[in-house]
Design a protein that fits this description.
Layout (H helix, E strand, L loop, with lengths): L14 E3 L7 E7 L7 E11 L1 E6 L2 E2 L3 E2 L11 E7 L7 E9 L1 H4 L1 E2 L4 E2 L7 E10 L4 E5 L5 E3 L3 E5 L3 E5 L17 E2 L1 E3 L6 E3 L5 E7 L2 E5 L5 E18 L5 E7 L2 E2 L2 E2 L10 E5 L4 E4 L6 E9 L5 H7 E8 L2 E2 L1 E5 L2 H17 E2 L1 E2 L12 H14 E2 L1 H17 L39 H13 L3 H5 L1 H14 L32 H22 L3 H22 L11 H9 L5 H17 L11 H9 L4 H8 L7 H6 L34 H10 L1 E3 L6 E4 L9 E8 L2 E10 L2 E8 L4 E4 L7 E3 L2 E9 L2
Helix pairs in contact: 4-6, 4-16, 5-6, 8-9, 9-10, 9-11, 11-12, 11-13, 13-14, 13-16
Bound molecules: beta-D-glucopyranose (BGC).
Length: about 775
């Protein structure tokens, strides 16, 4: 059968809409053309300014939802291509329903709405191939008809209103013609259309609720047992015209939903009953929640448990990496990391899924990318999103935006114009802009596929130019706005930038890592001259860092854990200086009582810096700490995802009063990388695991750990167990690759493909 792409032709479909306040229904019918034999292929190419769903004679045309996702719509709009051969009948009615989505809905916390354009609209083209080679094409154009739908309101943040007494998209193919009016053709430039590079968004699984009680005013409270992202599907029978209102929240406070962390996002769906059996599923919105509050539930508690499901929604990614160990709390932490990723890899990598934000911050992903790339195959997912980074950088002269797609450019209050005649040179923002280099590198390291680096060549080059222009004479970075070690637990709730670590030191360190990676990238891409030039810049930064920030006693300016963590992990200090830095870091952690003292920038590196300088036990004390702030504090407070703040829930059970208090942020989940590489002990020694390093570092309290990963060559994995200080290691090395086993206190061993077992390896 021809594949969808082979049925593609130049785009002729028009973008159509209808002027209804609801999500409009757009409809046409067609008949098969006689005399050409069987239909052998049928492909629908479809896109929208907004979100579109298609039904053929009432049957969904695809399992995809939230199509076509969020891209930098000014220059890049994706279309999906769905195989619809099974849905073609002699007479077929196509119904499209169009929601606001990212295109026309609210975006961000500053009140932006409809920044991309005034109209929500859809365009689709159906091509049928017949057995005699004939083609029949149906396109959206001015001949289609439209009607208002039962979806009276829809917004990603605020929720959806469905009145089941009105025209539901699933029934619209049967509705009388006299309910329908004309459509309006919307001007649009088909040259911005591109196919998806990454996967679609789909329903992933369903969770059943438990009833946890009623609020003071008698509303039903449901608990799905897991903080998740998606929506509720509700089967219910109620009095015609009566309304059920569902609010969603991640945590409870004082026996009710804690809605304040959602800020202005209403996260409320409203369902009006038809009087018969209704089946509500609000697919033009999504919520981040564990709990739901039902106002106006017409049934019993048991009927709620039977008729309501949480539908988990996210990008269709393949799970490739796994981890386990003998400590159930660490296993739970790892599970929370995975759930945090599932909820925030929804078409694009977002900071959080619940409040009025949900944006593609590069800084958060720069921290989390190595962990994410191990857990799921995110190569195509991120290459798709990185194309938007390229678009946004071109729009702003090579500068890397804070978020992709970049809506902040529409928000003038975010930027202060320089005084007349003053030119402000752009400068790199540590971590957030460095993501432009760190993220493609994480893909290369994990998958060994050079496409991400090739695709980002120009983006990296223009960012590197900005770095070169911003370095001070002495090799440091002092210019530019820095978010710094964001959300250091010592920073007050209302001032997350106010970290212990000196912002300049951190910024210079991050700039070094970026220059170092950029040089390596040039080498991978075969440009040795550029590699040498970038290496020289990196070395200049390194000398500047050492001369300016490192004292003769080895102390680094501000003497905070994060400055030592990054100096060690990025290779700014080496040899004795690295050892001294590691010793000081361990001392600071011990003096602090083995609780977390790092924010977004220090956290991904602090455990690596400790274990890399011989302080494995300190690292284990930190990761197994249960006092606040720590990873397992969150677990002990019942977390099922990773929180934005170390103390998003305060020890007394209250929600942190800070205005950014998400319970589903993946940045601190960057600890997953250390669990994989150091606890279980597997990492790529060469990109794509063509050579794989097995280097577990067992720590007190753990008796076993394991991890495996489906590499491009096959599965490689490790499993170890410890009994009376005797270590037993089982390994699997994928075909065509080589393993290197490095155990504490033992000589290194090179291993060929296949299974290996070492029975009596001694530790310590
Ligand atoms: C987001 C963060 C983000 C930060 C940067 C916050 O509101 O949730 O994760 O990186 O802003 O400004």
């Amino acid at each position: 059968m021809p594949q969808p792409s082979s049925l593609s032709s130049p785009w002729t479909a028009q973008m159509i809409t209808a002027d209804h306040p609801s999500a409009p229904i757009l409809r046409t019918s067609f008949q098969l053309e006689p005399g050409h034999g069987e239909v052998t292929a049928a492909v629908l190419r479809i896109t929208a300014l907004g979100i579109v769903e298609a039904r053929f004679n009432g049957v969904p045309a695809s399992a995809d939802v939230l199509t076509p996702g969020w891209t930098s719509y000014e220059q890049r709009l994706r279309f999906a291509a769905w195989d619809v051969i099974d849905l073609i009948e002699p007479t077929t009615t196509i119904v499209l329903a169009v929601g606001n989505g990212w295109y026309r809905g609210r975006l961000g916390w500053l009140g932006l709405e409809g920044v991309y354009g005034p109209d929500k609209a859809a365009a689709a083209e159906l091509v049928l191939a017949y057995s005699d080679g004939h083609r029949q094409t149906i396109i959206t154009d001015g001949t289609w008809e439209s009607a208002p739908s039962a979806i009276l309101a829809d917004d990603l943040y605020d929720g959806e209103t469905i009145d089941a007494r009105l025209l539901l998209p699933q029934n619209a193919h049967l509705a009388e013609d006299n309910n329908f009016g004309p459509v309006r053709v919307v001007e649009f430039d088909p040259s911005i259309l591109e196919p998806y590079v990454g996967p679609p968004v789909r329903r992933q699984e369903e969770l059943a609720p438990a009833v946890v009680g009623r609020t003071a005013s008698g509303e039903l409270l449901l608990d799905f047992g897991q903080n998740l992202v998606g929506w509720l599907r509700i089967q219910v029978t109620g009095e015609s015209g009566e309304e059920l209102v569902v609010h969603h929240a991640e945590v409870l406070e004082n026996g009710d939903l804690a809605l304040r962390p959602l800020r202005s996002a209403k996260a409320a769906d409203r369902f009006v009953f038809s009087g018969g059996d209704d089946d509500f599923e609000p697919t033009f919105t999504y919520h981040g929640f564990r709990y739901a509050r039902l106002q106006g539930w017409p049934g019993t508690d048991e009927e709620a448990i039977d008729g309501i499901r949480a539908v988990v929604v996210g990008s269709e990614l393949e799970r490739i990496g796994h981890f386990a160990c003998s400590d159930p709390d660490l296993v739970k932490l790892h599970e929370n990391v995975v759930w945090g990723m599932r909820g925030n890899f929804l078409d694009l990598p977002t900071d959080c899924p619940q409040r009025d934000e949900r944006m593609g911050y590069l800084g958060d992903l720069a921290a989390f990318a190595p962990t994410a790339a191990f857990l799921y195959d995110i190569d195509a997912f991120l290459r798709d999103w990185l194309l938007d980074l390229n678009v946004e950088q071109r729009i702003q002269g090579g500068q890397v935006p804070l978020t992709v797609p970049n809506t902040l450019k529409y928000e003038p209050s975010m930027f202060q114009a320089p005084p007349e005649g003053v030119e402000i040179k752009p400068a790199p923002m540590a971590m957030w802009q460095d993501g432009a280099v760190w993220i493609p590198w994480a893909l290369w390291e994990q998958y060994g596929d050079v496409r991400a680096l090739e695709q980002q060549r120009e983006s990296i080059a223009s960012y590197f130019d900005i770095i070169e222009g911003a370095i001070e004479e002495n090799g440091t970075l002092t210019a530019g706005y820095q978010l710094g070690d964001w959300l250091d637990p010592a920073a007050p709730p209302e001032d997350p930038r106010n970290a212990r670590a000196d912002r300049e030191v951190v910024a210079t360190a991050c700039m070094y890592k970026t220059a170092d990676l950029a040089a390596r990238i040039s080498r991978v891409l075969g440009d040795d001259e550029e590699a040498a030039r970038r290496r020289a810049v990196a070395e200049r930064i390194r000398s500047g860092f050492l001369d300016t920030y490192v004292g003769s006693d080895g102390r680094i300016r501000s003497d905070a854990p994060t400055v030592y963590a990054v100096a060690i992990a990025f290779g700014l200090v080496t040899g004795d200086l690295a050892q001294a830095a590691g010793d000081r870091l361990a001392e600071l952690i011990a003096d602090g009582g083995y609780v977390i003292a790092t924010g977004f920038i220090g956290t991904p590196f602090v455990l690596h810096a400790l274990s890399g300088t011989g302080h494995v036990e300190t690292a284990y004390r930190l990761i197994t700490q249960k006092q606040c702030p720590s990873w397992l504090y969150q677990v002990s407070m019942g977390a099922t995802t990773v929180w934005e703040r170390w103390d998003a829930l305060l020890p007394d059970g209250r929600v942190n009063p800070g205005e950014m208090t998400s319970f589903n942020h993946y940045a601190f989940g960057s600890v997953g990388d250390w669990m994989h590489r150091v606890i279980a002990g597997i990492s790529p020694l060469e990109p794509g695991y063509r050579r794989v390093l097995f280097a577990p570092q067992p720590g007190t309290g753990l008796t076993s750990a394991s991890a495996d990963i489906r590499t491009p060559y096959g599965v490689s994995g490790i499993s170890w167990s410890l009994e009376d200080s005797r270590l037993r290691v089982q390994l699997e090395v994928a075909q065509g690759t080589e393993g290197l086993l490095r155990l504490p206190g033992a000589p290194e061993r090179v291993l060929g493909p296949g299974k290996h077992e070492f029975e009596d390896a001694h530790v310590g």
